[in-house]
Amino acid sequence: xxxxxxxxxxxxxxxxxxxxxxxPSKPDVGIVTIAFFGSGAVFxxxxxxxxxxxxxxxxxxMISGGVPIRPSRMLIGGLxxxxxxxxxxxxxxxxxxxIVFRGLSIASLIFGCYLLAAVLVGWLPSTYIQxxxxxxxxxxxxxxxxxxxxNIAGLAVAEMNRNPFxxxxxxxxxxxxxxxxxxxxxxxxxxxxxxxxxxxHIAIPAQQYLMDATLLAxxxxxxxxxxxxxxxxxxxxxxxxx
Length: 242
Fold this sequence. Notes:
Layout: H1 5-22, H2 27-52, H3 73-93, H4 99-121, E1 128-132, E2 135-140, E3 143-147, E4 152-160, E5 163-170, E6 177-179, H5 184-198, E7 202-204, H6 213-225
């Protein structure tokens, strides 16, 4: 049974308090406990704050047309810095915890450093989305594909590991326009993987793009149901607008 966000936050905070109490007698154990469960508390607290501040449904939402929208470099870099710092703390102070714990600690350090380096050299973010009157472009490393608004069959907001996703189902996944064309098979494989994982042909991690998933779904839904509104995407406009 999955704990509620509030219960998860309180549970992690309880272990943080235990870690603080252990500092005088067992500083290594206390530091590891504070670092590990403190990270969990920060994550759970951010989820609670995000849901509390969730944007209300607007009467009308518009999106900037013709502009590639990429995931936040600051968000990815911040995640990398957090994982690297956590990995250093757990490796240095938790070395006596055994080989499995040491392996996880080192993995956190390596992955965190990779994210930081990838952001600094421009490898990440490697994806983008772009809205045009013709449809939505989903860009990936080495290829991109366009989904026409008329090909969108349904929209839904879902969560995976407490992260919000906008899930898009298509009428015909195989008719997306892929650039370059020889990457058509790669695009279809990615769509199939998304469907297997989340039950949707396309899943947009809205938080990575610093977007509200509900408002994004509302905006796309409007362009799907009102073809005349798509002309707004031919020019660069401000978002959101009411």
